[in-house]
Amino acid sequence: MRSKVSQPSWYLTAATIGVLLFLHIPFAIVMLYAFTTDEAAFTFPPPGLTTRWFQIAWNRSDLWTALGLSVRVASTATAVALVLGTLAAAAVYRSRFFGREMISFLLVLPIALPGIVTGIALRSALGLMEFGFSFWTIVIGHATFCVVVVYNNVLARFRRTGRSMIEASMDLGADGLQTFRYVVLPNIATALLAGGMLAFALSFDEVIVTTFTAGQQSTLPIWIFSQLTRPRDRPVTNVVAFLVVTITAIPILYAHYLTQDSGEIGSAGE
Amino acid sequence: MMSQIAIEFREVSRHFGPVKAVDRVSLAIHDGEFFTLLGPSGSGKTTCLRMIAGFEQPTAGEIFLFGQEVTYLPPYQRDVNTVFQDYALFPHMTVGENIAYGLMIKHVPRAERERRVAEMLDLVRLPGLEKRKPSQLSGGQRQRVALARALVNQPRVLLLDEPLGALDLKLRQEMQIELKAIQHEVGITFIFVTHDQEEALTMSDRIAIFNQGNVEQIGSPAELYERPQTHFVASFVGTSNIIGGELARQLVGEVRPFSVRPEKIRMVERDAPVPAGMIALDGQVHDVVYLGMHTRFTVQTAGRESFTVVEQNLDRTLADIHGQEMRGRPVRLIWPEGANNWLREEGR
Amino acid sequence: MSGLTQAPPGSGSNSWSRRVSDLLYNRPLLLLALLLGPPLLWMVVIYIGSLFALLIQSFFHLDGFTGQVVREFSLATYRDLFTVAHMRILGRTAGMAAAVTMAAAVLAFPLAFFITRYASYRLKAILYLAVLLPLWSSYIIRVYSWKLILSKEGIISWVIGKLGLTAVLNWILDLPVIGGPSLSVSSLGLFLVFLYIWLPYMVLPIISALERVPRSLIEASGDLGARMGQTFRHVILPLAFPGVVAGSIFTFSLTLGDYIIPSVIGDSSPFIGLAVYSYQGTSGNIPLAAAFTVMPMAIMGVYLLAARKLGAFDAL
User: Fold this and answer.
1) Residues from C in contact with B at Cβ < 8 Å
2) Which of A162, A167, A182 sits opposite B75 (nearest CB)?
């Protein structure tokens, strides 16, 4: 098949390596700075290395509060997105109705339009309805742009699963709900898991929409954002950055592993 | 022979908007028959099968299963099972679990399930493969598992949707024989969909020929071959020379279409005498194709009509085939009047 | 494993599940409504409803004396919007978005080309992941990393100092428009961060467009005597172009609407996002903020229409 792969020219290889370094060196920098002894500036190379900032960060209650809120928001938003995204994918897959493309377009709109549009639109609508900002307003915003991630993953899986499998199950005596339980669910399980994890990651990191829907509360990204504009705890922020990078890599890598033969998450962000 | 009727269609139609996939089809399939729905793609045969299974509903008409109306019953309430074209095995289950699926839904106790799965695997000659995953099987093996999965439920009718389409020729021929043997063993009605006329002729007790949503003719393989009633059947099942119009009047004295099979026609010298009861027509050999068992000639008549003639290569030697240049040679075609098969007149 | 071992009791007696199935089986429209209802309701009521509310608010205006929003239809807010200062903000933002988009296309193309044409199966998987990982990782942390990189005492200054090029850097920073007191408060720095953040969104659509160029086509071109450069220009580039356009939808739109990056990096000269944020926040002028967001939406609307013409939606 691949009998004679021609060799890339040296400048193509160099450009590729260059772009990859550009994409990944910043992560290395974040990793490194978590251990710096410098607490007032971002001196490179770090004057010394220490792990004591991890200890200090561990004892910060404001961080724990922000992390707790982020986790609760992301779990709730993911749960909502899983239900809505799966329903939409099932509807689009099983019937051809007028305006099928409109559904995909509608779902992708919240991440295709600039985040600030979604943010201010939700904020002003909530304001018009005199709806107080709370945990739930954050969740509503996040769930809205997470639906598409689940939808894309599940729809791609449905499309790979033969339509005749559902017919086969009913042919063998299973009704609609039994078919869902024994055939559909096991087949889309990994797509749900992958979509769910990506939705979680998306919600966990989100900052633009959140600033508009959060009121006084702060999620972890908002905490970091406040440190960016008014740095008070540089070393602690460095540690948080380190932890967020490491921890969010896990669901991303796992979601990739679950969908690697189908390229489902490739289109998930789009 | 008055056997019970397994499936009956009464004026069944299935229209998709302006498209008439199936148009007022009526037919009756007897219990225990190997019945084939044969036709080109898009002729409505698969839609008919899907309406029997319950995957689609007719837009008009009724369907009966052993005298009971099932027109709008969901698939899971019909005593029929299907072998799908792509097999539709559940990839997340083992072979054993796939076959036991219908029994599991019916809450058959586990021990009995296992016994019957093993029995089925024996029937389809795949003993001991319970623990495999479908992805570890070859195409032919998947085919057998799909068959076992349907038969284990002891349906009264088995539906087969082009089940051999994905197999290569050799395997296909093996499976044709085996399917017949299995049908003989379980003794239930098989309804088989195919577009391959040779397959249909080999396997079926009776065949329904579909064309553009209609049934053109129903009959045994021999009836369909020897006495096709329409132009379509005459040319879709085997090859036919179809004669009509002026040529028909010249040959048989009336303007009425008829068909003659190529193997019923003999090719003789131009000046050969015409025996009584034979029809003769002069022409010129236009093309010769050597096909191993026989040779196919295309003969063009004075009226520019093409005739296909097949001759067994009984006495022909290699020297004959290479040495004789047949092309362009003037010949006379003769065939017995009894070989003429009258066709229904249609606006063509 | 798959539940086959434990069939639920309460067996055949037509349970509610079977009754629901029977009910829905011959009513596909009801089933469709049940499936589509909740997501459609959510998206239309919450999202489209909000966008609509935003549009309506842009026709309200702020009373100059009381500072209260007057809920009556007027075009006063739009009159306030079309001022020289605001147009300058719009121009600056769109210019930055265009620059980022073009740079991203230039950087993304070789990477995508290498991944689709030269990488072995294994390497391809790794490189693909190397693009996905930044795309999905924390946005705010990725912005933060550049705060570290661009700072005066950070790695860039250090490397340039070691190379003895500090004078060159200073000369660049002295340039008008792109320069500034230091990298992290210059337009150049801002541009770099935008480019870094949105680059993966450009790479993926180009990969998927390039993957669709059949290998046989390239071989055919080579067979017809084209050199690699010619094949690239006449065969690959035109076929991959929809991918570039698809990627540009993201890079352009995301740059257009971002307010986090310009508030952290750069010389705090206003961008659309920043202006919207400050109008709705500190000055409480929601109508003007709403009118301001209508602009990027209109720009993106035109952009999407154009992209559709160029066949970019197939590459999404």
Assistant:
1) 1-2, 4-5, 7, 9, 11-12, 21-22, 25-26
2) A167
